[in-house]
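To fix ideas, we close by showing one paired sequence and structure record:
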Amino acid sequence: MNLDSAIDTFLSPIADKISGIIFSSITINGVKIEFLVALLMIAAFYFTIRTRFIGVWGFKHALKLITKNYEHKDVVKRKKKGEVSSFQALTATISASAGIGNVAGSAAAVSIGGPGVIFWMITAGFFSMALKFAEVLLGLKFRKVNPDGTIAGGPMYYIEATLSKNKYIGKLAPYLSKIYALCCIFAMIGGWNLFQINAMTTQITEVTGGSSSFFANQSWLLGLIVAIITYFTIIGGIKAIGKFTSKVTPVMCSLYVLTAFVVCILNIHHVPHTVAIIIKEAFSPKAMTGGMFACMLWGFRRAMFANEAGLGTAPIAFSAVKTNNPVSQAFIAMLQPFVDTVIVGTATAFVIVVSGAYLNYTGIAGIELTSKAFGSVCPFFPILLTFMASCFVLSTMLCGSYYGIKAWNYLFGDTKLTTRTFQVIYCIFIIIGSAMNFKSIINLSDAFTLFLAVPNLIAVFMLSDVIMKELKRYCKKYDVGLFKHNNIEEREEDEEKLSGDSTIKV
């Protein structure tokens, strides 16, 4: 028995037990519905309705904020706390979610749920924008400023800072925040690290000759190269990661969408039929037997997994933004699900359908199916896809390392030694993941990733009134959106909270 098999044999019973609990589900019309996926969907619907579809009316304002750095003059005059720009934080979170999940995950969703999944992915992307707004607002409002000027933020802090005052679950708050941090560490090392690098090395090996490739039996070399690049980037913290993603992410996303557009143009005669079949299967008359329901479920599942809305990871990155206004950055954060799911994820799924790959290659799924779809019009495109996917993977791992560091520091202290310890461990696992395929570790990581939603959404739901008050004050003050006319009294201390002075100094 080799090392790979030995580890899987040891961990499989543990992983199956934990995954069975976290992925608990009920079956409706033959379709399994995981409770946590349903919870994410409910949260997305709830905040969308309560904010009166902020993803629609707030979209223009979000674009204005990110393109013109629009802020009120009295906010601009103040010294902004933070480490990175809004654009760097946005590209970092897009990078974190636009990895293999959108290249391979969207393909898997179409192969299982059919073309109608695309419609529901787009729908879920819009609903996710409100949930993303809510959690990022809290992340910025309750972030902590360290003595050296660095920022610590995320669900760990707003869970502990707010729920500890609740008379019903106050005693549970410290445990919930620590549970979140622990799950975040496992999720980053496993799913955002091991899985990503393994998928990357597999794809590179495949396009360079498969079993005859130079990397066929020494993929660890790829892992070593990526580990070195990752380490010398992440030691610079969120500033270095933000600089990297702000340059790489826009180029890669644009190139990916452009390549998908070329595939669609070369299949232009199939586009009308593709649009028709997407809409038709999204509302299949077989709904009562599970057709439409299953299609909708797979669309929402893929979208919620891909854009991470409700998991609390984006607030960790956005907490480091240079701003005194949490609400403005929450508007900007809404663009992440839109770019990630509505644009990149949908582009992947549409190419697979318009090229006919989902029908012609029924025995494969994931990035292999995406590669076949791109390769259907040009033999060079799979190589280009490999390059783009590799950049997505690297960006995902970089941002994942930052999430993991902040969770690690929350548990073990925010010192240079503890930070370096996690960074070394993280990079070692890149090398390990490139050479081995630990199915049990990946499954366990997926379970921990999804479980992040539990403590995070408990806090977000309980603080929903705070979120709405901040939103209404902002809209009235800046004459923005549907809440610019409201009857909320603006006291002096409320203005201080709005400007970001609620940030905690340590």
Confidence is low (pLDDT under 50) at residues 71-77, 488-501. The chain has one domain: 19-487. The beta strands are 25-28, 31-34, 144-145, 151-152, 504-505.
